[in-house]
Specification:
With 428 residues, the chain is an alpha/beta fold. Helices cover 35% and strands 22% of the residues.
């Protein structure tokens, strides 16, 4: 008898998308047919709840998808179970570290039962995958973190640091490379903390991965400054390797030391600036960071400290968020600023970011070099050079191919190719 049809929706970070690929792979392996929402017998949603607008969207989708048997997976079931159950008390729940139970949860949902799998840890490596992008292999290297951020609900969902064994990570990388992946994304709650519970470091892991045979590039995921301070020297050595994208995503969140202390971030703005200076010792390094405006009690002067930090350090990429009060966090109980003030600061910071990133990108005009085509976008494709800069190239280029490009113009978010020709392999 044919298995049921399953619709899977995925939201959130690269780790969530890896979970989604595993969920679809496990279901397909058990004979379920992956389908769109209109044809499905049961729905699965992999949730994210890092920001209030995102969490509200999740609840909206849970409400709509709940007209059929439903499984809610990802961070939200662990961090905000009660919110889900108010919207759909019958939905089965699967936590971010219990992906292996998703088939059981789907079967329970189809039978009209509610299954709950939230507790425990598992090593999410070696599972079948339904890759959304055949060029990009997303390899989870661990779960949880060592942080104490007062605003972060992800910490509630994923708990303390649990680094996966390096030998299993290497097997996963080898599997992806043999399947044709040209980029390996090393992802976790905090890559900078990897291995600190095992006597290892992220730099050591990257060096191991770089020794895997095959032509591919490695992207290191988000790293919090606090653990990064302890392992920076070894990571800088790893960044010098040809297979490693010169890309570091290190969130600063605020330029005010008082606000950073309230956030529980464990570093000062000066220490963050020193990290950026050291990272830029690597030629071609791209620095991505995150900022939150409107944190509880943030003054106008403290907001401007963040503005000035961005202007002074000139990060290549800045992800901007308005403060979101997430249930269960310490910051949820702090006195909040009024919405008008938060919105005003967000608008002003967005303009600063646009000005800074446009000027940074303008330095790339006239650059010529090699880039790996790794993503489809509307009417074109994106390629990444060794600095992981996104370059818009013609749609005709194949995913996974190397191209030689010349940059003709830029936007605040990407580089635009003036000329692009195919190359069978990367040349430096």
């Amino acid at each position: 008898m044919a298995r049921a049809r399953v619709h899977v929706e995925v939201y959130g970070c690269s780790a969530s998308y890896a979970d989604g690929e595993m969920i679809m792979g496990l279901l397909r392996e058990r004979g379920y047919e992956l389908s769109d929402e209109s044809r499905s017998d049961v729905n699965v949603i992999v949730t994210c709840c890092v920001k209030t607008p995102t969490a509200n969207r999740m609840l909206h989708r849970i409400r709509l998808l709940g007209t059929k048997p439903l499984v809610v997976a990802g961070c939200m079931p662990k961090a905000e179970r009660s919110s889900i159950e108010k919207v759909n008390p019958n939905a089965s729940l699967v936590g971010p570290d219990r992906i292996s139970k998703v088939v059981d949860a789907v079967e329970a949902a189809l039978e009209g039962r509610k299954a709950v799998y939230l507790d425990g840890k598992e090593i999410k490596l070696g599972y079948p995958r339904a890759m959304r992008n055949p060029v990009v292999g997303i390899v989870e290297i661990g779960s949880g973190c060592l942080g104490h951020c007062t605003f972060c609900q992800t910490r509630l969902a994923k708990g303390r640091l649990f680094s996966y064994p390096p030998e299993l990570i290497l097997k996963e990388v080898e599997r992806f490379v043999k399947a044709g992946a040209k980029e390996i994304w090393l992802t976790s709650t905090d890559d900078g903390a990897y291995g600190l519970d095992r006597g290892l470091s992220i730099g050591e892991l990257v060096k191991m991965v770089a020794r895997v045979e095959g032509e591919f590039m490695i992207r290191v995921g988000m790293m919090s400054p606090e653990p990064l301070k302890k392992v920076l020297d070894g990571l800088l050595e790893a960044y010098e390797l040809e297979k490693v994208f010169k890309f570091a995503h290190v969130p600063v969140q605020s330029g005010s030391d008082r606000v950073l202390s309230l956030m529980g971030r464990g570093y000062t703005s000066g220490e963050f600036s020193d990290l950026v200076k050291r990272l830029r010792e690597v030629k071609g390094m791209t620095i991505a960071t995150d900022v939150i405006v409107g944190f509880p009690t943030e003054s106008e002067d403290e907001f401007y400290e963040t503005v000035e930090l961005i202007r002074r350090l000139k990060p290549d990429v800045v992800n901007l968020s308005k403060f979101s009060a997430r249930p269960g966090t310490e910051a949820f109980r702090m006195k909040r600023l009024d919405n008008r003030t938060v919105k005003s600061r967000s608008v002003r910071m967005a303009k600063v970011i646009k000005d800074v990133t446009l000027k940074v990108n303008e330095k790339w005009i006239g650059w010529e070099g090699y880039a790996l085509v790794d993503e489809r976008v509307k009417g074109a494709k994106l390629a990444r050079n060794s600095s992981y800069r996104p370059i818009v190239v013609p749609e005709s280029f194949e995913l996974g191919s190397w191209v030689k490009v010349k940059i003709g113009s830029v936007t605040p978010n990407c580089l635009l190719s003036l000329r692009a020709v195919p190359n069978p392999v990367r040349r430096t």
